[in-house]
Amino acid sequence: MRRRVASLGSLAAALSLALTTALTVAPAQANPLAGPGQQVAAQQTADIRLLAINSFGGALSPPEGPQSTITRPDGTTAPAGGAAYLSAYLEQLRATSPNSLLFTVGDNVGSTPLESSLFHDEPTIEFLNSLNIATSAIGNHELDAGFTELLRLKNGGCHPVDGCQFGEGFSGARFPIVASNIVFDNGRPATLPFTVNFAGTIPVGTIAITPADTPSRVTPDGVAGLRFTDEITEINRTADLLDFLGVKTIVLLLHEGIPTEGCDAAGRVHEVASAASPKVDVIFTGQNSGQYNCVLPDPDGRPRSVLQSNGRGRGVSVADVTVDLATGEVLRDRVATFNQVVTRDITPNPTAAALVARAEELSAETSQRPIGEVSEKIDRHRDETGQSALGNLVADAQLAATTASGAQVALTNPGGLRASLEKGPVNYASAHNVQPFRNQLRTLTLTGAQLNAVLEQQFRSDGDVVLAPSANLAYDVSAAAPAGQKVRNLRIAGVEVARDALVRVTVNKFLAEGGDGFTELAKGVDVVGGPTDLGAFADYLSAASPVAAPARNRIGSVN
Question: What pTM value is reported for the model?
């Protein structure tokens, strides 16, 4: 059944009608976690299906590398992902439950593969339009190119610099893009703060939360003029408003993720789940790439489903919900959830397949351009010191690209490296997959004391963020030392760095403006722009091929 977005002006009348209309449905099996008094006869209830994808990231083509396969529930593995297969699975899931709604939990765009990013993610929006999405949350990556560009993706229009390269025009997203906790500096909502859609006759309210720390995850340009308010405060305020309007079935799209340890791991999702209004019935999350299906207690101690599917188009989260038609309330004892893996052993959706083929064809000349060669796999996974072979290689490339600006050392953030390099020839698409953000490089001057402070900012109570150093930069770390005193023996080209020395340091624009919590870098002076990180990487591979994996010997350990 086609979903509808209710306007506030007609909402009260529509809800009154919806909540007094019964559907004929099959009985559902009771959940042993149920509280007393929740067993309601089937003829007094309606069943609806809530679906969610997360972190799609423009993955139109099937992913490569470690994300190219997925583990089925029976433990076997299979090729996974691809927009055409995701669309086919969604058709199947909807066919068995016509009263359904589909949501996305953010990061639909940003750090996308070349067949999407080359066209400023317009192909991804066109694909998502074909899925009939009820509501999309705003993730931090939606703001990588700034709020103005996000509005263009929503409202349509050609890119102001490159025009429309994927088609004659671009009409924008045909689905609401929502954030309940993003406001302008003057306090006015920057986007729709919630939506109400109908699954059959059941109104479903949707709250969408963007991380409050988004300003530390994107460049300042990306969030200029915006404020991100407290997640829990806005969830509870919006849930109360929806309840006042008569909407009793409420979904939360929370752009956060549970750590890999699973449902028992502490983190922001658990904090939100334990404090978010009991009026919220189901929580879909989406931040890391893993999947889980958890039941966590709400503030009243009642069980509440919290789930996430694999990202990059490799999974769909499903919540089958039964609603009491007399009250409009979700019967928590009848909520059934699972994560559907998206394998490539079904017939792909032909419309989606045609769109993907067009994006691949139009980007082929650029993506297949030879760059160089690597003599062995160069991995982005980090060892116990925080170093990776790929990170060290990228730092070396950035230093080489900026020596004309006086650069003496370079540092790069691990979060900017999105894929490893496999052994063999490297084309432009492979290099782009490593560094899809295309951040401009900046060379700036720090004192030796400031450089030391930057390195101290790597070590944090909520998890270290170790910057990859260029080959001429070395230092030791004392894990046992207190915060602020962990870095020892800081050297450049083997010479100890004096606290009053002036050092020219190259980083990307994101770091130079204090991103990832490296506020000390924003104090740098005499800032000079350089090429993009992707351009520097591609040039380095071309000049130095065949390239071997650098040694991970730049950060040492001391007692």
Answer: 0.89
